[in-house]
Design a protein that fits this description.
By secondary structure, the chain is an alpha+beta fold. The protein has one domain: Small protein B (Small Protein B, Chain: A, Beta Barrel). The chain is built from 4 helices and 9 strands. The radius of gyration is 18 Å and the shape is globular.
Length: about 150
């Protein structure tokens, strides 16, 4: 089975992840086909609550190439499927200032379902980002020394 993995690469750099969850998504048939072909992006996406339900906005899923008049809208809002307990936990966390919910990865589960990893996160300041870069450079330098 072909594996699909669409990542939000800037998420780890721009945000400090506090907690992660795995959610299902309410998708249309043509959206599923496009995601399986790898034609999706979550770089600009974010999650928000409408009532007690969690939705993802600005997730781009390209129109399916063989679609007809029933093809989906690329930027439509999609409902995320989580348990009531998880939704309550995320909602309580987002009540604090500066806390947001961001998508980190879209993948194909072992059963063939399309799932999304989301993170409850706090935005990093510039000095936090510089610290992350220093740690990354130090790890890379150590790896180089071990290879010599």
């Amino acid at each position: 089975m072909k594996t699909v993995e669409i990542k939000n690469r800037k998420a780890k750099f721009d945000y400090e992840w506090l907690e992660t969850f795995t959610a299902g998504m309410q998708l249309k048939g043509t959206e599923v086909k496009s995601i399986r072909m790898g034609k999706a992006s979550i770089a600009e996406a974010y999650c928000y609550f409408a009532g007690e339900e969690l939705f993802i906005k600005n997730m781009t899923i390209s129109e399916w190439s063989h679609g007809n008049i029933f093809n989906h809208e690329p930027l439509r809002e999609r409902k995320l499927l989580l348990s009531k307990r998880e939704l309550d936990k995320i909602l309580k966390a987002t009540k604090d200032a500066g806390i947001t919910v961001i998508p980190t990865k879209v993948f194909l589960s072992e059963k063939g379902w399309i799932k999304m990893n989301i993170a409850v996160a706090r935005g990093k300041k510039n000095y936090d980002k510089r610290q992350s870069l220093k740690e990354k450079d130090a790890k890379r330098d150590l790896a180089r020394l071990k290879n010599l």
